[in-house]
Amino acid sequence: MERPIAVRPRSSTSGAEAGETSLTLLERVKTRDGDAWGRLVGLYTPLLRHWFRRWGVRPEDLDDVAQDVFQAVAVSLEGFRRDREDGSFRGWLHGVARHKVLTLLRRGDARGPGGTDFYERTLLLPAPAVEACDDEERSLIGDLYRDALETVRIEFEERTWHAFWRAAVEGHAPATIADELGVSPAAVRQSKSRVLRRLKEVLGEPAGTPDAADDPRNA
């Protein structure tokens, strides 16, 4: 008889495996969870700095502008809804960052990137939904998902994680993994889907949007 691949029951004695993991990272941030806020900042700062460099922000201003963006996020995060627009937190953050850079430029803030020419170029940047990712950004997004995977791993029992990893990361056929675990190929595919779905929930990404998480081998 086929053994089901199931989600690991959450312990009532471990905070990391109980209520904390039942919430997405963004939901925890909204509750003023300091650890979650630190995690959010750590996950997304490299991507923010990359966007700033691409937009021409001076190296010495990167940290200050990032701080300004996270302050704006702290104030306006309640306005983010996954069911609006493209539903992507990363896309929403991109918009917040771009708006903050433009605001600094319009104010002539010394911490912002300088120069009228850059100001004009920045105003013509494409919208977040159509701005193409370069190789560095794709690599940073891969790092983002890889770090987030470590966050969600404790929520799944070992066989579920093994099935996901062998299928999504190592690229083995579901039938091969099913033979190893004594389950059906469908159960393997379901394990992969569960982990990826949870990963996107934690990061505030829409479940149906193709992304680096759909093939962690690209991460």
UniProtKB/TrEMBL annotation:
This is Sigma-70 family RNA polymerase sigma factor. It comes from the Bacteria. The keyword RNA-binding does not apply. Belongs to the sigma-70 factor family. ECF subfamily. SUPFAM superfamilies: Sigma2 domain of RNA polymerase sigma factors, Sigma3 and sigma4 domains of RNA polymerase sigma factors. It comes from Paludisphaera mucosa. Gene3D superfamilies: 1.10.1740.10, Winged helix-like DNA-binding domain superfamily/Winged helix DNA-binding domain. Keywords: DNA-binding, Sigma factor, Transcription, Transcription regulation. It holds the Pfam family Sigma70_r2. Signal peptide: none annotated. The keyword DNA-binding applies. Residues 40-109 form the RNA polymerase sigma-70 region domain. InterPro entries: RNA_pol_sigma-70-like (IPR039425), RNA_pol_sigma-70_dom (IPR014284), RNA_pol_sigma70_r2 (IPR007627), RNA_pol_sigma_r2 (IPR013325), RNA_pol_sigma_r3/r4-like (IPR013324), WH-like_DNA-bd_sf (IPR036388).
